[in-house]
Amino acid sequence: MIYKTNEYLGYPNRISVPAGESVSFQLSSKRPKVKIEVLRLRCGDVDANGPGFKREVMASNIDGEHACRDQPIRPGSNAIIEHDGVLVPAGHHWCFGAYVHPTRIADNAKAVMGNWCEASARGYALELDEQGRPVLVLGQSTGVAARFTLDVKLRQRVWAFVSCALDLAQRSATLSVVVPADGVRPVVARSKSFVLPQALALDSGLPFLIAAHHRNDERQYTSHFDGKIEAPRIFARPLDAEALRTFDCQPRTGATHAGLVAFWDFSEGISSLSVKDLSPNCLHGSLRQLPRRGVTGFHWSGSVHDWRLSPREYAAIHFHSDDIYDCGWQTTCTLDVPAGWRSGVYALRLTPAGDAPEVDCESYVTFFVTPGRTSRRADLVIVASVATYLAYANSALRLYQVHFETLMEHVLWLPQDDVFMQENPEIGQSTYDCHVDGSGRAYSSWLRPILNMRPRGYWFNLINDTHILDWLEEKGIDYDLITDVELDREGARALAPYRVMMTPTHPEYFSFNMMNAIMAYQNAGGRHISMGGNAFYWRCGFHPAASAALEVRRGMAGTRT
């Protein structure tokens, strides 16, 4: 039987929950209702030639039917700056620009900076059109956008400084591009002036954005930039393009720069989700959907491969139109995990509501229950490899890697989940896959549906690990289960109650904290049973400001995969 496993999708707000605490689930479906039951998985392998699908139904406070809604996934990263009108052009002059390094020029316009809103056709912005040409977008009181294009095509993966100078008194605008000299290539500078329309509408009433436009006034965004942006700046006084480009904001006590409205220095707070404005206005912003920071910027010398040693050389942010960290769905239900539940691998089983059963329609959302404060501890603890599950989450290798058949030594076949991912790429892929601009993915989050970490999904990793749990159950060996998330955040304390720890079939990804915890545990006399291959290989980390995201950096500069 071919099961319909994607009629319902979902994810937990926390991947592991101690017994006695709560976990929320965000579900989505085109069907108006869903029937929920909670399972404790003993073996998640549905292959009839294997041990069989073994599970225990757990009575819970969320059993039964729930209302369900179709919740969209809106990928694409950008920066958001609240400004109370300070970033609306005022007075006679308004000059703004940024370094850009486009990595994908195709399909549609790519926003650089501004407060433009497509629904209201109000605001202003700099963007690149589908050919890579700089465009100034201005709102008019007529409700029709005015667009002015500089006929210079930027090249992919080449730094350029794009800017605009508005003279509102003289009703003129000058668009400029400067491609700085690089090696044997001389500097290239082009500009063009335009006459502005009479009745401008430059205030959209919305936050200022970097790397996106507002789709509407409901915090929905569009025209996401694919590529790096560095050092956006705004002045309320006349400056030519070169003067604006070479301005170096180095604030000191008691000294200000005339006309400076904002200067966002992305070398500040690289490990955070905030962007810092160095101007006296303190127009700091926040990042949405986790764009990649600590990437080589315009000033990179090639001699430093650690952003901590020279943050200025890594002062860019790499935005992607398909970045996804958190789907942001509304909560469907909240499970209060009883204090008496055994630790282990758990899943919500999602099936259609109503009296007419559909035996071929079921989906699962996996989570883990760990021992609670009052739980009796076993001698043995299994450490589930969540970091590895995330690294491979929604892997699309079978779809896009030309060497896949050689790698796997069998003819390519695509299960339904692969087809679903190809038709719905907004769900996000694994750290083995690439963004639409060809750059490697560095982040993977559990705040999105993960199709290959559940029963009736691809058996690699989690499902294989449940074979070990099934064997322990069959032999009557008592065990607890924690995840390597606890290992990362609690260190050796997470292992201290146990005589023996076991890592399952494929514990490939380990952070500094995880490795030190295991070494401290072993050095203190703890025993370690390693049941896997390709183990303890890739170094990874959980993002310090986005706790649900695994981060994997590959490459000499630590900026690519």
**Shape label:** elongated
Mean pLDDT value: 94
The value of Rg in angstroms is 26 Å
Strand content: 25-35%
Count of DSSP E strands?
Answer: 35
Total count of domains: 2
- Model regions low in confidence, pLDDT < 50 over at least 5 residues: none
Secondary structure layout plus pairing:
Layout: E1 9-12, E2 16-18, E3 22-28, E4 33-43, E5 54-58, E6 64-67, E7 78-81, E8 93-102, E9 110-114, E10 124-128, E11 134-138, E12 146-149, E13 160-167, E14 172-179, E15 188-195, E16 208-210, E17 213-214, E18 221-222, E19 227-235, H1 241-246, E20 260-265, E21 274-277, E22 285-288, E23 292-295, E24 316-319, E25 333-336, E26 344-352, E27 363-370, E28 380-384, H2 386-391, H3 397-400, H4 404-408, H5 416-423, E29 443-445, H6 462-475, E30 480-483, H7 484-490, E31 500-503, E32 509-511, H8 512-523, E33 527-530, E34 538-542, E35 549-551
Parallel strand pairs: 2-27, 28-30, 28-31, 31-33, 32-34
Antiparallel strand pairs: 1-3, 3-25, 4-5, 4-6, 4-26, 7-16, 7-22, 8-13, 8-19, 9-10, 9-16, 10-11, 11-12, 13-14, 14-15, 17-18, 19-20, 19-24, 20-21, 21-22, 23-24, 26-27, 29-35, 34-35
Helix pairs in contact: 7-8
